[in-house]
Amino acid sequence: xNSMPATxxxxxxxxxxxxxxxxxxxxxxxTDQLAAMQAHRLEQRAxxxxxxxxxxxxxxxxxxxxxxxxxxxxxxxxxxxxxxxQFALPGDFLGFQPDLNAPVFHAAQALTPVTLCVxxxxxxxQMFREHPMLAIRMAWITARDEAMAHDHLTSLxxxxxxxxxxxxxxxxxxxxxxxxxxxxxxxxxxxLKQEHLADALGLTTIHINRTLxxxxxxxxxxxxxxxxxxxxxxxxxxxxxxxPDRFGTRPIL
Amino acid sequence: xNSMPATxxxxxxxxxxxxxxxxxxxxxxxTDQLAAMQAHRLEQRAxxxxxxxxxxxxxxxxxxxxxxxxxxxxxxxxxxxxxxxQFALPGDFLGFQPDLNAPVFHAAQALTPVTLCVxxxxxxxQMFREHPMLAIRMAWITARDEAMAHDHLTSLxxxxxxxxxxxxxxxxxxxxxxxxxxxxxxxxxxxLKQEHLADALGLTTIHINRTLxxxxxxxxxxxxxxxxxxxxxxxxxxxxxxxPDRFGTRPIL
DNA sequence: CGACCTCTTGAGTGAGCTCAAAAACAGTGG
DNA sequence: CCACTGTTTTTGAGCTCACTCAAGAGGTCG
Lengths: 253, 253
Hints:
2 copies of one chain form a homodimer. The first copy, chain A, is α+β, with helices and mostly antiparallel strands.
């Protein structure tokens, strides 16, 4: 099943059109530079939910900018234990790693139908050479991801279940807010099963379930049917000591 | 105590001398470029053990390359819980973050006497502009750190105490090995107290102590008096599924 | 030789896990 | 519209790994 193939858009310049301008890697670029980008034949691609962008230990010669949808990065140990490293949201960059020839140590899988902008590795490197500003921006993006990983690390190492969950909810809420207003009342669409929360937070689904109920009964937040509702933002912040504006959107230079 | 001040070396070009050539940020640069670097008046600095390079929530206008010694990056929550994010070893780059104007969300503190190469922020950015290759290398370094954070994350989320400790020991062993041969027999000098291990691995000192005994009694590894001995490398690898060559030393371009 | 760390060991507790099974839900095909 | 099947959520009961509290032992340094 899911035999729907990756759809390649014929006109590559489409990719440099409206959506691109909103994306992190290109955000504050001059239109000059944007135009130059398009020379690199950015391929756009759509994948169904569940599709694997790249699998663990594989070698990849592509990197991606996520346009639409959610992707999870995860790592599986030999005996099947799984750790979700990151939920990638629109605007995030995927597949960049220190040694581009080495196998990746995690897998990337779509949680919803996704749209991606694909950069062949050679193309990416070429772009860096021609537009050093992009390399600097890449460093910035990677540093931002690292800061998020550090946050995540602190959660797993030093917070009990309730705080981990609260923290994740606030993070998701904030990340989605910076990319456009979210309707607090209607709730935030979050395509995560309890199993995903468990694998991201280092807990079991069963315990996630109980903790979810706890948050619900405390009137802090609910997650039902793929809709996250932040009921008491302040209350969640007090639990976690979360600070907004963690991951500045301003560029380095 | 520890009132010994930061010692600034008079001759800045010293910093571009012998030690620099071994460092990650500059490693495969042409001597041309190396020379250019020195124009930026790299200041070298020595600090005693326990010195704070920068503290949590402060704004920093410097970044560092670590020459000698160990540094820990850690984050402290309001109620005092602490998470060590990373142990920085010689060659590592410190203080680079997405928004260089924003406060850092972690602190950096020397675990041993250290020697650093200091880059003023302006100087670093200037270097990036003049030598885009450095920006690319910066992205590479950051991606490598992120990969290590992901490893760490997997440990905290999905491994029991014994495996976390074994994994950390293997990581330290490997990272030190790539920067020069280590004497397996004599053991590896590791300036970590049990408290550090606990804060890095999300456990208590007491439990670290018991787990350490467990590894010792299984003949896998010992840590006593600041000396780490890997007694059964293969055994540790089997526990953790650790793979060498995780963080390639090859550059991107 | 105190004073102060750091390490070690014991005893009891608890947050989160495992095992087990029911209930809700979403498709799917008749 | 309804059985039929698979997935996800929910709840219960018991267990364990890691935590807390407490105290002793071993170093180190002024």
